[in-house]
Design a protein that fits this description.
Chain A is an alpha+beta fold. Chain A contains eleven helices and 18 strands. Chain B is elongated and about 120 Å long. The longest helix of chain B has about 45 residues. Chain B folds into four domains: about 120 residues, HprK N-terminal domain-like (Udp-n-acetylmuramoylalanyl-d-glutamate--2,6- Diaminopimelate Ligase, Chain: A, domain 1), CATH 3.40.1390.20; about 90 residues, no CATH class; about 130 residues, Alpha-Beta Plaits; about 90 residues. By secondary structure, chain B is α+β, with helices and mostly antiparallel strands. Classes of the chains: A alpha+beta, B alpha+beta.
Chain lengths: ~375, ~525
């Protein structure tokens, strides 16, 4: 990395010293995943970057338009990743499978979703393959399904896609439609060990200039840097607001958990549950946080105040860090933070795909009321 | 004929008294007096958004899945000014209850199909009077199950809820129910229903405080109070029967106790070691300690008092001391306080002071004996109390006499003064015909009281010594030869009797004596 401490803006490379920062930033954009495999992943990536040098971060429009690019992400559950650690070569091998299939040589790697461990994996693969990383991704956060991407909305097909397991086995999927591809992939995740390295959305840099969300990797580094400073929560929220446009809905104490709090469907692999928070201070509102694989919606006294595709996260006030959903306990004092997602997701097509209705909440999104 | 309002909107409080809402779990009740104008069966939030104020919202299908959807429904109901929200009982969790309290929206958890419940409620709301009649019928059933006055008041208070307190008031005293019903408060309409005892005599009244802003509420409350009247009278009669039995039981037990104390073969005074039988404690009596007896007697003895009077005296005497006995005996009532300490007359003193008002009203006097140990001591104390009660009759209704303060002069209370005065008419013919006989009798009585001292007698009478001397000389001429030792006691008693009879006559001018024992008495000798 070339910028000094305190620098905020576009990042041109990611080195070994940026790994923890990247990890923290990635957590902000998808707080659902726990820290179970933090140490092994970050030390692996740090070692890789130490040996191979920093990975160059390029804007999509800085590459020749015909440059072939492919996206990478971690498919499946974070808990499975902790149980079955990566062998290390799955991501590079997944990319090479598609190269062989399509008889192309990729000139850049880009994250399918620049958040959680899926933000780290493409860096590792880019380092192993000696390729630059695009400062762009398909979600700008995480959604539950792999066709919930900007590329899909722009007409780029996710297939052919390769899921490469830590066991050395792989699955190649070619399907007519993106949802079918997602369906076929879902059936193969468990046999591969609960998680897999996924390479998909093979396209060119020219297409990605309009089809991907730009600047989402450097943003992680900037946000991560703020989070690692461990300042006073109020100051932290103000600084985060300056970078991400987030706002605090309120601060309160967790008073109740409810499991299976609403009807489920089978499309999204996570149980619905709810969190009840009593707001501190004079207003004393009752916040109800609806959870699934992420925080889906926030209600204040029954009024919907925020919901997906907003990025919703809880800041643990006493520790001054983002609380992961599996670490919450009754009695915790938390700030409820709402960050707007990319404008694309608030379009009619975006909301139809990843909006509240996809989680069974048939209410108008607060930003469209 | 009372006015009816067949179309007056039904209130939430009325609805939750009858099926199907009678079985609902009330998670939060914001305002029971809230009127309900229609039922809205809401399957989604759009339907909720279109509801009109004062609706009863029944959630089902999508809107009834709980969690966030119930929270949203509560928020919309609050926004639309709904009367209440009904949802399946399983769905309404503690957080929903907390939110309902926070938004102050009534929330009820129901069993069964929400659509059925909504249809039943729609029927009730469209015919409010039928729903009210059903409620009254159910209330009447509950009232009929009650056998006690408190039970009846309990049913009324639970039926009408916290916002409408009900009390049973006899005179100015709240006998049962909530005293807040009688408190003066603004914006409260008072509903009173008289309850008549035997012979249409007013016995008590039911009082309810109804919030004035609810239209028609007073009329419905009155209907319920009227329904409660027969149950109340039955319960009252039951109490009377019970207390009659209890009084008879006490009377019999006391008779046995007295027989024990004066067992043949030994004098009562020496029977201090009589063991108290076990049935004493069953009646709540205590006799093992130091006993101080009380005799309550009518001011003018007129034979055995009626049972009604016994009941009233019992109510007044046992207020605050329900375990103290009260036994009808002859023309009065016996009671006693038993304690471990001879000096501990405090509770009795307070009870007697508190009873004086009732004694004055019922025309009673009170005698209090000295403290004596055990059963035989009790009998002795009773005898003393009875004695001073007779002395107390001199003082008029409400007079209280303590044997400790009276002593030997108590004997005078037993003199048959009327008969003695008749004897004087025969024996002292000349004196009785004299026009100044009252002055002569008073003077001779004063001289005898003062042991023959003319100067002391003149001071007591407030006349000159020579006047006393002249009157004594005239008395001797008229037959009052009190210098003769053989006649002195008889003449002294006759003079006392003549003076007592005169003071007892109406308009005699001598004031009724209060607490203190008589200032003078005959001096023997």
């Amino acid at each position: 990395m070339t910028a000094g401490p305190g620098y905020i803006g576009m990042v041109s490379s990611i080195g070994a010293e940026d790994v923890l920062t990247l990890y923290e930033g990635a957590k902000f954009y998808s707080p659902a995943v726990g820290d179970a495999n933090k140490a092994s992943l970050t030390s692996w990536l740090t070692g890789l970057l130490d040996r191979n040098g920093p990975v160059t971060l390029r804007r999509a429009d800085a590459l020749p338009p015909h440059t072939p690019c492919v996206s990478l992400c971690v498919l499946g559950s974070g808990a499975a990743l902790a149980d079955l650690p990566p062998a290390g070569d799955e991501f590079a091998l997944a990319v090479q499978r598609i190269e062989r299939l399509q008889q192309v040589t990729f000139g850049a790697i880009y994250p399918l979703a620049a958040a959680t461990v899926s933000a780290l994996a493409p860096v590792a693969a880019a380092s192993q393959l000696g390729l630059p990383l695009l400062d762009a991704d398909g979600m700008g956060r995480t959604f539950a399904l792999i066709h919930h991407t900007a590329m899909h909305l722009a007409g780029v097909s996710p297939t052919p896609l390769v899921a490469y397991g830590a066991t050395g086995e792989s699955v190649l999927i070619d399907a007519q439609s993106a949802p079918r591809g997602t369906r076929l992939l879902g059936a193969n995740v468990d046999p591969l060990g609960g998680w897999a390295a996924l390479a998909a959305y093979s396209t060119t840099a020219g297409v990605l200039r309009r089809a991907a969300l730009p600047g989402t990797v450097s943003r992680l580094v900037n946000v991560g840097r703020l989070l690692l400073e461990r300042t006073d929560p109020d100051l932290l929220v103000a600084r985060l607001a300056a970078i991400t446009g987030c706002r605090r809905v309120g601060r309160g104490r967790i008073v109740e958990f409810e499991q299976l709090s609403r009807p489920t469907d089978k499309t999204i692999p996570a149980h619905p549950s709810s969190l009840v928070i009593e707001e501190s201070g004079e207003r004393g509102r009752q916040f109800r946080i609806e959870l699934r694989s992420e925080i889906v919606a926030v209600f204040a006294d029954g009024l919907l105040v925020a919901g997906v595709p907003d990025v919703l996260c809880l800041l643990d006030v006493s520790r001054g860090e983002i609380a992961t959903l599996d670490s919450l306990e009754v009695g915790d004092l938390v700030d409820v933070l709402v960050t707007p997602a990319d404008g694309l997701w608030y379009s009619a097509e975006g909301l139809a795909m990843v909006g509240l209705a996809s989680h069974g909440i048939n209410l108008d999104h607060p930003r469209r009321r | 004929m009372r006015q009816r309002h067949p179309t007056l909107p039904i209130t939430l409080a009325e609805l939750i008294r009858i099926e199907p809402l009678a079985r609902a779990r009330v998670a939060h009740l914001a305002d029971p007096a809230r009127r309900v104008e229609q039922v809205v069966l809401a399957e989604n939030f759009d339907r909720l958004r279109r509801s009109t104020p004062h609706s009863l919202i029944v959630l089902h299908a999508e809107a009834a899945t709980g969690g966030w959807s119930l929270a949203t429904a509560l928020n919309l109901a609050w926004e639309r000014n709904a009367s209440a929200v009904l949802v399946s009982r399983q769905v309404a969790g503690p957080s929903s209850q907390a939110l309902a309290q926070r938004l102050n929206i009534s929330l009820l958890g129901i069993d069964g199909d929400p659509v059925d419940v909504a249809l039943q409620l729609a029927g009730q709301i469209s015919a409010p009077d039928a729903a009210r009649a059903l409620r009254q019928a159910q209330c009447a059933e509950r009232l009929a199950e009650q056998t006690g006055v408190r039970g009846v008041l309990g049913v009324l208070n639970s039926e009408l809820g916290a916002s409408v307190p009900v009390a049973l008031v006899a005179g100015d005293v709240v006998v049962a129910g909530r005293a807040s019903a009688t408190a003066e408060r603004p914006e409260v309409e008072r509903v009173c229903v008289e309850v008549h005892g035997p012979g249409e005599r007013p016995w008590a009244r039911l009082v309810a405080a109804v919030p004035a802003q609810t239209p028609g509420a007073a009329q419905q409350v009155r209907a319920l109070l009227l329904l409660a009247r027969p149950s109340l009278l039955a319960a009252w009669a039951q109490t009377l029967l019970d207390s009659g039995t209890h009084a008879a039981h006490e009377q019999a037990a006391f008779g046995l106790l007295r027989q024990l104390a004066v067992a043949p073969g030994r004098p009562a005074a020496e029977a201090a070691d009589v063991e108290a039988p076990a049935w004493n404690s069953e009646l709540g009596w205590q006799v093992e300690g130091i006993n101080r007896a009380v005799w309550l007697a009518p001011w003018r003895s007129a034979g055995e008092p009626p049972p009604e009077l016994t009941h009233l005296v019992r109510a007044a005497w046992q207020r605050g001391h329900p375990n103290w006995p009260l036994i009808a005996e002859g023309d009065g009532w016996i009671s006693w306080q038993s304690s471990a300490d001879t000096e501990d007359a405090g509770p009795l003193r307070r009870a007697v002071t508190a009873f004086r008002g009732a004694a004055a009203v019922h025309g009673l006097v009170v005698g209090v004996g000295r403290p004596h140990p055990g059963v035989s001591g009790l009998m002795r104390s009773i005898a003393e109390a009875r004695l001073v009660a007779h002395v107390a009759r001199d003082g008029g209704p409400g007079t209280v006499r303590w044997f400790d303060q009276v002593g030997a002069p108590a004997a005078l209370a037993w003199l048959p003064v009327t008969e003695l005065a008749e004897v004087a008419e025969l024996c002292l013919d000349d004196l009785m015909n004299a026009r100044d006989r009252d002055a002569l009798v008073d003077t001779v009585l004063a001289v005898l009281d003062c042991g023959g001292s003319l100067s002391q007698a003149s001071q007591r009478l407030g006349v000159h010594r020579n006047t006393v001397l002249a009157r004594v000389a005239r008395s001797r001429q008229l037959g009052l030869a009190f210098d003769d030792p053989a006649q002195r006691l008889a003449l002294h008693v006759l003079c006392y009797a003549l003076a007592a009879v005169r003071s007892a006559r109406p308009g005699a001018g001598k004031p009724a004596q209060e607490q203190e024992p008589p200032a003078s008495g005959p001096t023997p000798g």
